[in-house]
Amino acid sequence: MPNTHYFPITSEQRKQMLSDIGVRNFRDLLTGIPSEIVSPNLNLPKPLSELEITQLLTQLAGSNGNANRLPVFAGAGAYEHFIPAAVDAITSRGEFVTAYTPYQAEASQGTLEAMFEFQTMICELTGLDVSNASLYDGATSLAEACLVAANATGRKEILIAETVHPEYREVVATYFKGTGFSIRILPANLEGLINKEAVQKLWSDNIGALVVQSPNFFGLVEDLKGVSNWVHEQGGLLIMTANPIALAYMKSPGEWGADIASGELQPFGIPLSFGGPYAGYFTSTRALMRKIPGRICGETVDTEGACAFTLTLQAREQHIRRERASSNICTNQALCALRATVFLSLMGTSGLRRLAELNMENAYYLREKFAQISGVSIPYKGTIFNEFVFRTKHPAKDFLRSLKSRGFLGGVSLNRWYPDRKNDVLICVTETKNKETVDRFIKAVEESL
Amino acid sequence: MIEPLLYNDSDPGKQGWSLPERGRVPGNFEKNFPAGLRREKAPRLPEVTEPEVVRHFTRLSQKNFSIDTHFYPLGSCTMKYNPKVHESAASIPGFRELHPYTAAEDAQGILQLMFELEKLLSEITGMHDFSLQSAAGAHGEFCGMMLVRAWHESRGDRQRNVVLVPDSSHGTNPASAALYGFKVVEVKSNARGRVDLQKLKQLVDQHTACIMLTNPNTLGLFEEDILKVTRLIHDRGALAYYDGANMNALLGIARPGDMGFDIVHLNLHKTFTTPHGGGGPGAGPVGVTKSLAPFLPIPRVNYDNDRKQYFLNFKGKTPVGRLKAFYGNVGMLVRAYVYIRMLGAEGLKRVSEDAVINANYLKRKLSEVFHDPFGGFCMHEFVLSSRAIGDGKDIHALDIGKRLLDYGFHAPTVHFPLIVPDALMIEPTETESKETLDKFILAMRAIAEEIRNCPEMVKEAPHTLPVRRLDDVRAAREPRVNYFDKKQSDKALHV
User: What is the arrangement of strands in the sheet containing B413-414, beginning at the earlier edge strand?
Assistant: First the structure.
């Protein structure tokens, strides 16, 4: 007996409706479908009841080594952070979860006002003027930023620091494939940071933007003093991608003179979920406002002069401009952006700052302890936020397996992206770990060597 | 009633967070973090307490229409009921708290689910294989465009730079093709609202890379010549791309693979009822035929028969690159998997049957009042024109949509597709009851009466919502997109 609990039309009503339509049975409605392809037999597993599917999924999920079972010391673009209960409570409300994109503004003031608050908070964090209502994730947001920069400057190349997340660089390359734009890589120096002299050496008049990440992929905070001035003098733009919690403490893209900031919102109350759904943020200077992709919410008035919110600057978008749109993007990641909005509303300026400080306390403590462990070295000594690289005397793969057997998800092997870095591990520690857990972890590391 | 922005209640003396004390772990960042790398100006976030935050957002939620509260006859958007078990399933800690770089041996549950979902979607659509990476429909289209080019180039066929789209297509189709550097050429519809086969024959040549089709199309009409269309396309060396936005009409009814499509994207947030979330997140998996499967983006989810283990395979030789960080909107994949496993073949078929019956019932009843430009039966949606009824009164489809809000119904998709003047595009879905449909019919009849007798009721709608009709022109002319944004001339926010 299949499940019928989603189907309100009774069999009596069905007969009545078919008769009102003027046909005898359902098949009579399928006049246009060629007979050789109509009504295939789908070979699918038998339907399960809600109880059975819940049991099946609980069993499947039980074979996963989630953060509940294995404390996570892995980061690399996805971070385990504390999520206040109010975030889940608000964002599980059906009025948010099951609403459509706010095209009918009068019937979507809730979603729209939250978007306006989101845009305000993200502008504040990044120190820039205009924010969209979010994109798919940090990587696609960076790719869109590169497209905007290339189009805005009329130049065909983008200079991307090697210290940008490798998967982000791959996504930029993907987005560039059909456009005729290309990427030039800015190598890192021996400290794991961007090489500012190399920026000047590699620069050419074909380059529209420099892309940097901070904290960069190796966890290091970049010093961008003088960079934006120089890039702007060459007629280029500066794009910065940054961990958004770090923005509570470190210099913002706007303060560094960046033209576009893009990045991942996952640390703001969005669960890990094996990599998605997350959301990307995207902010720019006012000068680029009419060139940026994605939904933007703006304030306006109704016919009685009352303040209200609506999607605006839609002349950029695909549903108006079709093939001449600034991007093909249709929706944003509204519910994920709402999670970030509620999260930031709870944290406020002081809470986000405390959160950043707790991350740094843990990271500096862990790095100092690691530096004292024989068999481990710290290749980069620079300023960090909640991640750093360490080198073991064993291949990272074996080391991590050994840590796993001691009950920890112990970091990410850089070998995944850098074939010559077999012994390097990128490790992350967030506010979710107290001293006891960190110390237990250090002990497990020592035993794994 | 206006709900003030949270910023209005902000006060530095308030705190909405509860976090551990500083100094819990003795790491000294202050000594190590140079002053020159620190922020000079603190971000202005609202400083409010938890009850204020909860009340604010709860009140905001009450200003929304949603599927949980309203009927959304929104054509091509498939706004159907989103089962609650989907939400609880995606929240099981083993899924929700799983880091994307967890080793495969500790992610067997989720990898198995993804592996099986690829198979289920392949069976439902008649395709050979699926990639689950794309984050949304438009992202899936973008992936599809890359597959098209990669396939042609692998055959040394490099001059194919044209993508054909019907004039009734979704805006994302031409935008996705253009984003990937294709030239977009529009195919006119014939008088019956279908692709004009004769005109198509004149357009397809050695430069055609692919045709992008939605079937049933955005008029809710099945492309009767579909087998001829795909044969023509293939005979001339091009590919056929299926935009799955309207797949809700076809579960167990007809499969894109059997129609001759080479590439398919599905909108899991439509047909497979993962929630729309006020505009995302969605998911847009891409399916392909056997000859295109080697081009699917990496990583792929594979099964190692020797080790009896699922794993992410990064080793493909595809020229199609990575589409996003990590592996896709996994949380949405869990929801879609639950839906398919709970309904099975019979249940999925019921989805499309009821969706088609509901649409034809509404079409039949409403065409007594509004002009039905194409006649005949529709699939899961249909398009009426309000031109005749609103003509001379300056009433347009948009106004009717706004007036419907007063009657407690979300507006249909209006003024789309572009080929029907004053289009009202209506898709009821299978999860609406006959009682709701009948109330909707009454509302539409009442509005038609109002247009005749008191058109200003319609022109000035909505009357009963939290706000009256909005001034969209003003919003775009003097954009205020940020609370601290005073006016257009105010360049910098952080001064």
Answer: B382-385, B423-426, B413-414
